[in-house]
Input
Amino acid sequence: MKRVGIIGTGIMGADHARLLTTSVSGAVVAGVFDLDPVRAAEVAMASGGARVFGNPYELIVDDDIDAVLVASSDDTHEEYVQAAITAGKPVLCEKPLAPTVEACTRILDAESAAGVRLVSVGFMRRFDPGYAQMKRVLQLGEIGAPLILHCVHRNPAAVPGLPGPAVITNSAVHELDITRWLFDEEIVEVSVHAPRATSLGGGTPDPQILLLRTASGMVADVEVFVNARYGYDVRAELVGEVGTVTLDGPPPTVLRRAGVDGRALPSDWRPRFAEAYRLELQDWVDGAGNAASAWDGFAATFVAQACVRALETGTSQQVSLPPVPKLYH
Ligand code: ISE
Output
């Protein structure tokens, strides 16, 4: 039984604790830490009596904790991931690995110095049955050589407290990862276009259109709109030389009311990606190693920062990733 310690019991930490307790085999939530001790105690209780730690570093080094899940705020990921590497424990870090390239680089350096891959990054869409099907269709050659990926990523409202660039570094970063993963190729050029901003977005450029060009010339266009109000909606269409494959959410719940025959949308990502989160956690607990690596986390943040620069300068940016460190070959 793998004893998991969770740092951060907010929206994602609590959800991971619930899935680990109810839907994942071979794991138990053994410890939790949160800046808010009441919130930590609630999650500990719901997880069947996990120990509440008063200090995240004590949780990481404790002999009764085998593996660490980091679900604290984005800007604190680095320090906890580094401490887990030092303690020699596997760590699943919520995306983004860290919001800056510098912080991600320090993590790569630490993991390379340790000489063993301990870090997984929570790009859960890689485990979503819809995206997995899309990749399978592509690999089987059913749509021919891929040319274009169209993506839509809409949230009803931005997560409170996140800075403006988080539209890219926290939300669109999923599509940056999915584009690399689906095409199995690096993104080499980006541009970002901001139409007139929604009046409901508090002044942030929102929505935004990202254009991503890959090494062999495929293009992904991403609409990211984090204050779209009507519901959580993630879609994609992959266009190949002889066909297309479309991802339009999980099996729909059909809702008929007020003279309308429609589909119910969730209010956030947890129901939409519930199965992806479950599969991701099971894979991590089993040590199967199919999750995004620290290198993938680094690459996504590297491209995200180029997108932020593209938005700020209004010019397209070349993206030139450094060579892949040996540990990730
Ligand atoms: C959030 O942090 C997530 O990871 C969701 O999957 C994403 O859709 C949302 O935009 C992010 O803020």
